[in-house]
Structure formats: C-alpha cells, structure tokens
Write a structure and sequence with these properties.
With 216 residues, this protein is an alpha/beta fold. The chain has helices at 20-24, 26-33, 40-46, 51-62, 69-86, 95-104, 117-126, 139-142, 149-158, 173-181, 198-204, and strands at 7-10, 108-113, 136-138, 166-170, 185-189, 207-209. It starts with 6 loop residues before the first strand and ends in a 7-residue tail after the last strand.
C-alpha cells in the first residue's frame, strides 16, 4: 500500500506502542496507592474508560478526595512515565518497517501524542524509534490537543505541508474525527481499549488495519 501524502503524523499510545492498557489501568495504580477498595465492577470498566473519567466517578461514589484534575493528571502521567521507561512495548513487530517504508518514500514523520512529549520521547528512545521522527509534540506545547482542528494545521505546517497532504495514524475516535474534519487521510489501527467505538472508527477512517504487516 502506497500513500499519496507528504507527511505522516503518528499518535503514540495504542498506535506506535501497545500502551493504552497501561493508561487504562493507571486507575488501578492510583486506587492501590491511595488505599481505595477495588470493586470487581471497577476493574471491568477500567479497560474501556479513561482514568481521568473513572477516578473522579469512583471517588464521588465512595466519598473519597482525589485532589482535582490537575493533580490527578500529574500523578497518572507519572505512573505512565515509568511504563515508558521500563515496560511498554511496540504495537507490533512491524512498526519500524512501516516507518522505514514511509521514510524511503520521502515522507516526513512526527509523533503527536496526548502524553507529555518528554515522557513519550523516553519511551520511543528506549524502543529505538525516536530518531525516525523529526519531532515529538503534545497538547501542552500548543495549549490544546487533537480535539481541535488547529492542532493538525499547526503540526502539518511544522512538517512543511497542509493537513490534506498528511496521513494521520491513530487509534482514538476523537482524534480521527478531528483529523477527518481537517481533510487529513486517516489510517486507523485497532486497539482493544477502543473496541466500543470500532464501528464508528472503521466508518470514518480511509484505511483500517489490525497490524502494520497489512501495509507492508
């Protein structure tokens, strides 16, 4: 498969790295660290529910203090930094080959992640991917993230092109929706944590894969 684009914008968690499950189970790490009881129904919900949403819900139900969103996010990101440094792995064994294929075709590559870019860079470096990208960016760099179309316009400019000439490689529905509104071509890669949105993702994306072996 050959993509008629100038550049590719890669998400990281669930796209380059098989790390979305770690994000989901930061809820469990948080609850254990703070001595909260863990109910079976909470464990079930963790797989499909953001920790940023689930912890406040559980805290409200149990009457527990959780410190506010900024404090919570900082703690969750700290848990993830350790996973990037030590145990998160590549999405599959074909990631590097796909990046090399795009580079050989003259595409400019970057990473646009919801994780702190310094933490993301640590994980990509450990796995030998960092030097394949021109830059790693995140929501904090611009003051907003992939929920706003301006994000993809800014990233495309940094890559020397326009959104219509970019391939966005993503697993998350909200980012796919924004990228399509901006005119990007979208390659969606399946992740188990987005299973509830699978049909909507497949309907929106230009191409949908389970493994990068499908595009080599």
């Amino acid at each position: 498969m050959r993509f008629d684009v100038d550049a590719a914008i890669f998400d990281m968690d669930g796209t380059l790295l098989d790390s979305m499950r770690y994000w989901r189970y930061t809820s469990l790490e948080y609850m254990l660290h703070h001595g909260w009881p863990v109910e079976p129904e909470d464990l079930v919900r963790m797989h499909d529910t953001s920790s940023r949403r689930l912890i406040p819900e559980i805290g409200a139900r149990m009457g527990r203090e959780w410190g506010g969103m900024e404090t919570l996010v900082t703690e969750l990101e700290g848990y993830m930094h350790r996973h990037y440094l030590y145990d998160a792995q590549l999405k599959d064994g074909y990631v590097a080959a796909f990046l090399d294929k795009l580079a050989a075709e003259g595409k400019r590559l970057c990473v646009a992640t919801g994780a702190p870019r310094a933490y993301a860079s640590d994980g990509l470096k450990r796995l030998g991917l960092l030097d394949r990208f021109e830059f790693v960016t995140d929501a904090k760099e611009y003051g907003f993230g992939k929920e706003r179309g301006e994000y993809f316009h800014i990233v495309a400019r940094r890559l020397g092109t326009v959104p219509e000439r970019c391939l966005v490689v993503e697993d998350a529905l909200y980012a796919i929706e924004t990228a399509k509104r901006c005119g990007c071509r979208v390659l969606a890669i399946e992740d188990g944590t987005a299973r509830l949105q699978r049909e909507r993702i497949m309907a929106l994306a230009d191409d949908h894969i389970r493994s990068y072996s499908e595009v080599l």
